[in-house]
Amino acid sequence: MSDLPFTLDQLRILKAIAAEGSFKRAADSLYVSQPAVSLQVQNLERQLDVPLFDRGGRRAQLTEAGHLLLSYGERILSLCEETCRAIEDLQNLQGGTLIVGASQTTGTYLLPRMIGLFRQKYNDVAVQLHVHSTRRTAWSVANGQIDLAIIGGEVPPELTDSLEITPYLEDELALIVPPSHAFAKLETIQKDDLYKLQFIALDSQSTIRKVIDQVLTRCGIDTRRLKIEMELNSIEAIKNAVQSGLGAAFVSISAIEKELQIGVLHRTRIEDVMVKRILSVLVNPNRYRSKAAEAFSREILPAFATTTWGKEILETSPALAANSLKATVGHSQGNTHVGGS
Q1: 324-330: long-range contacts at Cβ-Cβ below 8 A with a sequence spacing of 24 or more?
Q2: pLDDT (tens digit, 9 = 90+) per residue, 131-190?
Q3: How open is the CA angle 313-314-319, to the nearest 5 degrees?
Q4: d(CA 312, CA 17)
Q5: DSSP states of 86-154 as a string?
Q6: What is the C-alpha separation between 301 and 59, in angstroms, rounded?
Q7: Neighbour tally for 67: CB within 10 Å
Q8: Are 253 and 174 in contact (CB under 8 A)?
Q9: Are 129 and 335 spatial neighbours (Cβ–Cβ below 8 Å)?
Q10: Distance (Å, rounded) from C-alpha 210 to C-alpha 338?
Q11: Pairing of strands 148-151, 164-177
């Protein structure tokens, strides 16, 4: 080990600088002084006999050698974390960490319920939930940063051979309108009625938006004729906009259970049209599988593998909501990240 030209601490510092874009912010994120960070980088460059950063600009930019070292360094650090978690597993779920990933809708509405049930059974296991775009989540699973993930979009083609992708459950995307809308008085509407609506939607590049357009097109609906009144970047914002009478929207049925029950939103059915997508579970079969991840897959995933999103379990588990809040959630520390759908 003494012959290696770098240490794990130096790799952590390199990764932090690349992520934060400056030596000072990297030092703050690592709770060390900026001179200490600068000294470690200087020592690392001297040991490797190659510059790692271009120091001309305001932002710390990696050189080609810096990018190469960062690429290997991230893999080394990931394996170190995996090793520590494997050792923790010797305690047989009396501690340890479970890291779960999800795309936006599943991370907002499904995973907190699942984590709540898991915490009911394994209260000593720390749980982290990372919510990002499908692409970023898939890469995190591939890199070993996440134990398993539930996503609603397509996995990047370059990862399909390295990940185990298992279809999990169907997610229906329901058409919602305000209760005061004329369509709320009808049992069903016709396809052509969609052209009369003003829609509130996610960005055209979002996964859910693409799924909706694909399904509607297959059903003979010209999505180019749909009037998109506004685009918002969150499901909650879209629900509030519809509730305020600003338009209609397609939203996951899991996201509107409460609003439908209290009557502030109305679900409108379209004759001969049902918009659904398949949610999938991602794991990396070549990475170490912790006992916590095995327990989650064995006991929690089957309990929610219905089109009702585990509604029966929620209704019979009063402690579920309270337990879900005990999961490790900290926006400022990076445990929960909200990104694309």
Answers
A1: 324/112, 324/113, 324/115, 324/116, 324/119, 325/116, 326/119, 326/123, 327/112, 327/115, 327/116, 327/119, 327/127, 327/128, 327/129, 328/126, 328/127, 328/128, 328/129, 329/129
A2: 998 999 999 999 888 999 999 888 999 999 999 999 999 999 999 999 999 999 999 999
A3: 110
A4: 47
A5: HHHGGGSSSS-EEEEEE-HHIIIIIHHHHHHHHHHH-TTSEEEEEE--HHHHHHHHHTTS-SEEEESSP
A6: 44
A7: 12
A8: yes
A9: yes
A10: 19
A11: unpaired
What are 308's two structure tokens? 């009702």
Residue-wise pLDDT tens digits, 52-92: 998 776 788 899 999 999 999 998 998 888 788 777 766 66
Q: Which residues neighbour 197 within 8 Å (Cβ) at sequence distance 6 or greater?
A: 177, 183, 226, 227, 247, 248
Query: Which residue matches tokens 């296991």?
Result: 125
pLDDT at site 87: 78
Tokens representing 207 are: 């996964």
Q: Which residues contact 86 (CB under 8 A, 6 or more apart)?
A: 288, 290
Reduce the DSSP state of residue 269 to 3 states and report it: strand
The pLDDT tens digits of the residues spanning 285-333 come to 988 888 889 999 999 999 888 644 444 333 433 333 333 333 333 332 3
User: Which residue bears the tokens 């890291």?
Assistant: 99
Q: What is the pLDDT of residues 110-124, one digit of tens each?
A: 999 999 999 999 988
3-state helix, strand, coil in the chain (%, to 5): 50, 20, 35
pLDDT, the chain, mean = 85
Strand partners, 177: 266
Distances (CA, A) of 89 to 42, 99, 293: 37, 14, 11
Length of the chain: 341
Kindly list the distances between the CA atom of residue 263 and the CA atoms of 7, 233, 298, in Å, as whole numbers in the listed order.
59, 24, 36
Cα 281 to Cα 64, 101, 138: the distances in Å are: 36, 10, 10
Question: How far apart are the C-alpha atoms of 312 and 324, rounded to whole Å?
Answer: 17
